[in-house]
Design goal:
Elements (H helix, E strand, L loop, with lengths): L25 E11 L2 E11 L10 H7 L12 H25 L17 E6 L6 E3 L2 E3 L1 E7 L1 H20 L1
Antiparallel strand pairs: 1-2, 3-6, 4-5
């Protein structure tokens, strides 16, 4: 199959991600040569590549502890210390997700498959540890289903609500 020139084809760098504790799949477009009269044209049809990655459960408390922080004492810290703890812990969690993404490709990883390059992704954020969300008469571990540029969106969720929610569940 001919290689894509990603600078010429916007769809070539479009990928999708399904993330639930690190699961994901990606989509890419592949060229198909079509002969029309004496002229050859490239037509792009969707070619789906599904690849799953597992991070296992990720605990904000455990990741902070590995970095040397005790989140039970978080509220008593000065604002600058709290900001540093939050940033370092979130950076570590994003690093874990990014590593699972890269490892899922084994030897087939290429810069075009970089986690930061996912523009049209879908992800699922779930809660564990015996917690669930009540949806009417049903309950689920699924907290949020989102889409977009996954690296930015997950970091934003960690900063804006997941970190604080985790503190309140302890």
């Amino acid at each position: 199959m001919p290689a894509l020139d990603e600078s010429r084809h916007a769809n070539a760098s479009t990928a999708a991600c399904f993330w639930k504790a690190g699961r994901r799949c990606s989509f890419r477009c592949a060229p198909v040569g079509i002969a029309v009269g004496t002229r050859s044209e490239e037509i792009f049809l969707a070619s789906i590549e599904i690849n799953w990655a597992e991070t296992g459960p990720i605990s904000i408390f455990e990741e902070a502890h590995k970095l040397g922080f005790d989140l039970r004492r978080y509220e008593s810290q000065p604002a600058d210390v709290k900001a540093a703890i939050r940033k370092l812990t979130i950076d570590q969690i994003i690093r874990l997700i990014r590593e699972a993404w890269r490892e899922s490709y084994d030897h087939d990883y290429a810069p075009g498959k970089d986690f930061n390059r996912i523009v049209n992704g879908v992800y699922v954020i779930s809660v564990g540890g015996g917690f669930a969300v009540s949806y009417g008469s049903l309950s689920s571990e699924v907290m949020y289903i989102g889409r977009g540029k996954i690296a930015n969106r997950l970091r934003s969720h960690l900063v804006n609500w997941i970190f604080d929610m985790s503190l309140s569940l302890r």
